From TrEMBL:
Biased composition (Basic and acidic residues): 50-61
Official protein name in the record: CsbD family protein
InterPro entries in the record: CsbD (IPR008462), YjbJ_sf (IPR036629)
Segments forming domain CsbD-like: 4-56
Organism from which the protein derives: Rhodanobacter hydrolyticus
Region entry Disordered, spans: 28-61
Length: 61
């Protein structure tokens, strides 16, 4: 498993928590920061999945 997948998932979870805390407390800056971190984590996770697929395809050939 690619490191980007685990790190991406970690950022997704942290971002989601920040976003909820921001919504509950009315802190728009924290909410936006959480949303950005969550989406960056999704991208990083996707990069890790692509790297895993590429590595698996290379092993097949």
């Amino acid at each position: 498993m690619d490191k980007n997948r685990t790190e991406g998932t970690k950022h997704e979870v942290k971002g989601a928590i920040k976003e909820v805390v921001g919504k509950v407390t009315g802190n728009k800056a924290k909410e936006a920061s959480g949303n950005i971190e969550k989406n960056a984590g999704k991208v990083q996770n996707a990069v890790g999945k692509a790297a895993d697929r590429a590595r698996d395809e290379a092993k097949k050939h």
